[in-house]
Write a structure and sequence with these properties.
With 373 residues, the chain is α+β, with helices and mostly antiparallel strands. The protein is 25% helix and 25% strand. It is built from 11 helices and 16 strands. Helix 5 packs across helix 9.
């Protein structure tokens, strides 16, 4: 549907997928400086609802506060550093209490109580709130930023905001999550999502619903990449039929399209006529990526007696597992001493664009890339 070109670009050298030093630099220069996706607001139904999210060595406590806002804190007591919450998600009773010595914090992070500290000379509880992390809720999606110079979220996300607004993701509810442990570098997972050159070979069920060349790339450069693909049926499900009513603000021209967008460096958005799927991508090590896939539907659809999302979930669970398998095969091959960078096809133009954004984020010049071994 559109002309595209990789402009003669080739794949990244082996070290970008295998080196512990480069992975450490990615944590420092990318994951700790960019806005990263942590979860959907539908998981925080009332004040005290919380989730934990791991970024490198940092465990983050994300919660809904007493004023119904979303906050994020390092999950670390200000006394002796003990982790405050142990369970990956749960409900707090209006306070956060350390399991070691009982220091107690409010949902706004303030220190409410510190047993036996009142008589300590110079002790001021106002000096010991929980350490906060910048948080922004965009279309119901929660993003974190560890940088002291995070900058304007709205400005950073301006290229994609209007393109996803009509799905009104903030109104949707999560009906299922599946977490996958993929033995492959996170960049291979991003790149796999961004091309359908592999679809006829890897995804026979998907290829029946979307011709792999019937696509457009609306966003072709920078941290946001992607666009729509044609749907031959009604939606992306096992039988090609919708499993819910069309979302309220979807225009007629979008009712036979599925939109695929990557948001560097942590999220894939797949926007269907009847539901939204979100992949949260978390690098664990150079050859290990944890991916959580979540299916979001409109609340009115969920309440209908005949609501059954299983066809969509089964379809994408199958597709995900096919993708993760070839990503793991790629990781094994790239780790071989026989691997040398190969050329991208023009159908992989977004992969070349991803590499450019990645190298910019890593402060690598194109000349350094060309000379890398």
């Amino acid at each position: 549907m559109d002309a595209r070109s990789a402009n003669g670009a080739g794949t990244l050298p082996r070290k970008y997928f295998t080196s512990p030093k480069i992975f450490a630099a990615e944590l420092r220069d990318i994951l700790r400086k960019r806005w990263i996706y942590a979860g959907h607001v539908s998981h925080f139904e009332k004040p005290g609802s919380y989730l934990l999210y791991q970024v490198g060595q940092d465990n983050i406590l994300i919660l809904r506060d007493e004023e119904n806002g979303i906050r994020a804190f390092h999950n670390v007591c200000r006394h002796r550093g003990t982790q405050l919450c142990e369970q990956s998600e749960g409900q707090l009773d209006g306070r956060i209490q350390c399991p070691y010595h009982g220091w107690t914090f409010g949902l706004n992070g303030s220190l409410l109580g510190a047993p036996n500290m009142r008589d300590c000379a110079g002790f001021d509880p106002n000096r010991y709130p929980l350490i906060s992390v910048a948080v922004h809720v965009w279309n119901g999606l929660i993003f974190l930023n560890f940088s002291e110079r995070a900058g304007s979220f709205e400005q950073a996300f301006a290229p994609i905001s209007d393109r996803v607004a009509r799905w009104q993701i903030f109104d949707l509810k999560s009906v299922r999550q599946i977490t996958y442990e993929v033995q492959a570098n996170w960049k291979l997972v991003f790149q796999n999502y961004s091309e359908c050159y592999h679809c006829p070979k890897v995804h026979p069920a998907l290829s029946k619903l979307t011709p792999y060349r019937a696509s457009l790339n609306y966003l072709r450069e920078g941290p946001f990449l992607g666009g729509p693909m044609q749907i031959l049926g009604e939606s992306m499900t096992m039988d090609g039929r919708s499993c819910a009513a069309t979302l309220p603000y979807i225009e007629k021209e979008d009712q036979r399209l599925v939109y695929y967008y990557t948001i560097f460096p942590s999220i894939f958005l797949t926007l269907h006529p009847d539901y939204v799927m979100v992949h949260r991508c978390r690098p664990v090590s150079p050859d290990h990526t944890r991916i959580t896939c979540e299916w979001l539907f409109h609340p009115e659809a969920i309440t209908k007696p005949d609501f059954d999302p299983s066809s969509a979930i089964e379809f994408w669970d199958l597709t995900n597992r096919q993708d993760w398998h070839v990503c793991e095969l790629s990781q094994r091959g790239i780790s071989s001493s026989a691997y040398t960078p190969g050329p991208y096809s023009d159908l992989e133009s977004l992969l070349a664009a991803f590499d450019r954004e990645y190298l910019r984020a890593m402060h690598q010049t194109q000349r350094e890339f060309a000379l890398a071994d």
